[in-house]
């Protein structure tokens, strides 16, 4: 069954349409990356999924039901939307106990989620003194408390150090392997490349792409091939004569478009030119994302 189903979702604030006729689904068993430039409407969409904001129009269901019809929402959908939202004077354990009690969840879940998020040793400490990384873990512990099959994370790696980023990445993957649906937003494309199986890209509140990660990269690739050879000028001449477009690579070498790497290899062999490298270039996720969303960024800086 589809975990999250969004149809024609629209949100207006006064005259501004910040989410505009958005439709996509989030499927169990994979990490869906939710991408878009700043202000694209990601947080607003996530707030609507978790019942914190009311859609102006459109439908939105979790496991086939609207958020407000879920008897105990925490057992269906867990969310990390704002890691700062913790009562600073309480210990981590007390914070989770209070949450468990108000949602009629078994107390043993508290120790289970403390363990899973690596907070057992600091469970008796006041959350007010926690580092950003620890607060993030506590927010995730709260999201996992009801053992939900749908999880939503808004920019979970923002501000974390490399170890914290890796921990979140591994956690998201393991949650999806358990069969849960995981929706994670980010504006860091490189981060998504390492975490998400599927991508939903929005810009100015509208859907731009809904695609598998690999298909996204393939469809955005320019088909450029990096070629290195001691006979640089000779090969460049032959390639141009064969109809290819040839540019200088940043490091000594040629960036060739218009011919496949196989064709370039054959051409070089035919002319007796030795190659030291022949590498198809895949567009980086960052490049692909920039190309896709360039018409929908609100503020564009001048080129550096
Ligand atoms: N409560 C609100 N009232 C008015 N405008 C709002 C409100 N919440 C969000 N917006 C506007 O909606 C637009 C989308 O914001 P949102 O936070 O959803 O984007 P985002 O994709 O999460 O961006 P970011 O990556 O910067 O967090 C922005 O222009 C924002 O100013």
From TrEMBL:
Q: Per its UniProt record, what InterPro entries does this chain match?
A: AAA+_ATPase (IPR003593), ABC_transporter-like_ATP-bd (IPR003439), ABC_transporter-like_CS (IPR017871), P-loop_NTPase (IPR027417)
Q: Which Gene3D superfamilies is this protein grouped with?
A: P-loop containing nucleotide triphosphate hydrolases (3.40.50.300)
* Family annotation (Pfam families): ABC_tran
**Keyword Electron transport part of the UniProt annotation:** no
Keyword check for Lipoprotein, yes or no: no
* Alphabetical keyword list: ATP-binding, Nucleotide-binding, Transport
Q: Name one GO molecular function term.
A: ATP hydrolysis activity
Where does the ABC transporter domain start and stop, copy by copy? 4-229
What the record says about family reads: Belongs to the ABC transporter superfamily.
Name of the protein described by the UniProt record? ABC-2 type transport system ATP-binding protein
Q: Supply the source organism for this entry.
A: Amycolatopsis sacchari
């Amino acid at each position: 069954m589809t975990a999250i189903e969004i149809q024609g979702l629209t949100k207006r604030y006064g005259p501004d349409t910040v989410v505009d006729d958005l439709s996509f689904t989030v499927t169990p068993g994979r990490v869906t990356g939710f991408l878009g430039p700043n202000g694209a409407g990601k947080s607003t969409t996530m707030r609507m999924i978790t019942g914190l904001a009311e859609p102006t129009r459109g439908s939105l269901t979790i496991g086939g039901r609207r958020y407000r019809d879920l008897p105990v929402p925490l057992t269906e959908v867990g969310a990390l939307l704002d890691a700062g939202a913790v009562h600073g004077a309480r210990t981590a354990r007390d914070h989770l106990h209070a949450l468990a009690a108000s949602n009629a969840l078994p107390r043993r879940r508290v120790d289970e989620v403390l363990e899973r998020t690596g907070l057992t040793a600091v469970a008796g400490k006041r959350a007010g003194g926690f580092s950003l990384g620890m607060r993030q873990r506590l927010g995730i512990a709260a999201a996992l408390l009801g053992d939900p099959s749908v999880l939503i994370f808004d920019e979970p790696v923002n501000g974390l150090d490399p170890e914290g980023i890796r921990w979140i990445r591994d956690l998201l993957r393991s949650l999806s392997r358990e069969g849960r649906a995981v929706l994670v937003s980010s504006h860091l494309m490189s981060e998504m490349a390492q975490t998400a199986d599927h991508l939903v890209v929005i810009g100015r509140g509208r859907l731009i792409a809904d695609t598998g990660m690999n298909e996204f990269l393939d469809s955005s690739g320019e088909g450029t091939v990096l070629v290195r050879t001691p006979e640089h000028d000779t090969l460049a001449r032959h390639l141009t004569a064969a109809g290819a477009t040839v540019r200088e690579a940043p490091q000594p070498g040629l960036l060739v478009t218009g011919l496949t790497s196989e064709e370039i290899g054959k051409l070089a062999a035919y002319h007796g030119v030795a190659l030291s490298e022949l590498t198809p270039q895949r567009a980086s996720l960052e490049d692909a994302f920039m190309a896709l969303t360039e018409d929908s960024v609100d503020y564009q800086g001048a080129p550096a």
